[in-house]
Amino acid sequence: MASSGNTVEYVKGGITLGTALAVTISWSVNKSIIWAIIHGLFSWFYVIYYALVY
To answer: Cα-atom radius of gyration of the chain, to the nearest Å?
Structure first.
């Protein structure tokens, strides 16, 4: 099965969306740029954690 170029675009979009969500959630909760950067690096892991805990 051949890989298509569309897969790469979906992955790029997913990473961008996850990072944006993580930074937005982190900023609204903590009001700290440092925590927003750290949570942005963890992106989807932080978003899932936040969804499960809160």
So the answer is: 14
Q: Cα separation of 27 and 30, whole Å?
A: 5
Q: Please check whether residue 27 is in contact with residue 19, taking contact to mean a CB–CB distance below 8 angstroms.
A: no
Q: Which of 50, 22, 47 is nearest to 36 (CA)?
A: 22
1-54: per-residue pLDDT in tens? 555 556 666 566 666 888 999 999 999 999 999 999 999 999 889 999 999 998
Contact 44, 18 (CB under 8 A): yes
Residue 36 is which amino acid?
A
Residues 13, 31: Cα–Cα separation, whole Å: 26
Q: How far is CA 43 from the centre of its chain?
A: 3
